[in-house]
Amino acid sequence: MPLIGRFNCLLLIAFCIACVLACAANPNPLAPTPQIVAVKIKLDERSMIIVPVSVNGAGPYDFVLDTGCTKTIVDRKLATELGLRLAAESTIVGVLASAKMSAVEIRSLSVGGASVQGGEVFSAEHGANVASRVRGVLGEDFLRNFDILIDYRHMVMWLEPAPGSLAGSAIGEHLPLQFTASDRGELARTQPVIYGRIPEMGDAPISLLLDSGANQLTLLRDTLGPGEYQAEPILTGSFSRWVTSTATARRIRSLDLGSTVLSNLIVVGLARRTGVNWDGVLPTSLFHSVLISHFGRFAILNPSFPKESGDVLAAR
Fold first, then answer.
1. What's the rounded Cα separation, in Å, for the pair 45 and 7?
2. pLDDT tens track for 76-95
3. Measured between alpha carbons, how far is residue 128 from residues 55, 134, 243 in Å?
4. Rounded Cα gap, residues 279 and 101, in angstroms
5. What CA–CA distance (Å, rounded) separates 65 from 284?
6. How far apart are CA 99 and CA 14, in angstroms?
7. Looking at residue 304, what DSSP letter applies?
8. What is the pLDDT of residues 261-307, one digit of tens each?
9. Low-confidence residues of the chain, pLDDT below 50?
10. Is the dihedral of CA 67, 72, 74, 76 positive or negative?
């Protein structure tokens, strides 16, 4: 049976030197809008989350929501339409592919009423073979300013720019988010990574990127062990283009994420490339909702909320 896996720009730019330098050279943007915001989301033809994003007050435009991407990407044509000045183009080398991108300065980014001011994002051509007609990718450089709740059942995303109702009233197991240290020894808010175990593949914990820009559970390793078979070529891609990649696959009995157990899953194996410091990719779409608390540094899978948590969240 064909297996189609989708990896967004994370696999293109997340572990490249140019991206790291860009993040280090630009401090966090100014304080975001101080209120909880609910934003309607939709799914595209590849089941990627689409959110309405305004750039410098213009828009909104359809962007892919990608918790696995370190930097926001704006379509080159949109950057031109908005008069954004492009820096020199450079080739960004990533996990599975490379692409030509430029840095651009923006005054503001906003999703619904949730906004951050100023900062640097990337700009790239939107390839002709990319199915979704989105205008960009909303990455962790924006999302890290909020606690976020992605709710697939009600097709809504909640954003809160300070510790509050989302993280404070959510009921469920707190899974620690792992962060890497910068060259100055400081914790950097990068992609959200949690730990899990696949019992039939050993007792060692595996680090998994909690990724809204992927739709296939994936391990980055040369072999998946007993039961492995050669999968049909899968689609991997970026904002710029899609490519076919060879992969192996295996059915596993369970994936243990704290007390949460996902049963009878297909996992895809792709070869690990130099510079990748996590073991696999865990799609957020495997859950009916996911809370990512950037401030509390934890995630809750399938959280619930008490009635007394307030009218906004109680409506969920």
1. 14
2. 899 999 998 877 666 665 55
3. 23, 12, 12
4. 26
5. 11
6. 12
7. B
8. 999 999 998 877 656 678 999 999 999 999 999 999 999 999 999 87
9. 1-30, 181-189, 311, 314-316
10. negative
Instruction: Concatenate the DSSP letters of all residues of 21-70 into one string.
Output: HHHHHSPPPSPPPSS-EEEE-EE-TT--EEEEEEETTEEEEEEEE-TT-S
Distance, CA of 19 to CA of 101 (rounded, Å):
10
What does each C-alpha distance from 299 to 8, 66, 182 come to in angstroms? 21, 16, 22
pTM above 0.85, yes or no: no
Task: Classify burial at 241, counting beta carbons within 10 Å of its beta carbon; exposed 0-12, middle 13-18, buried 19 or more.
Answer: middle
Q: Which amino acid is at 203?
A: D
CB 112, CB 63: distance < 8 Å: no
Closest residue by Cα to residue 8 from 58, 53, 60, 50: 50
- Say which residues have a Cβ less than 8 Å from residue 152's Cβ, sequence separation at least 6: 285, 287, 288, 289
- Tell me the residue type at 64: V
For the record, the structure tokens of 188 come out as: 């950097």
Three-state DSSP at 222 gives: coil
Q: Which residue type, as a one-letter code, is found at position 127?
A: G
C-alpha span between 40 and 143 (Å, rounded):
16
Per the listing, tokens 């696949």 go with 198
Determine how many CB atoms are found less than 10 A away from the CB of residue 247: 20
State the pLDDT at residue 21. 33
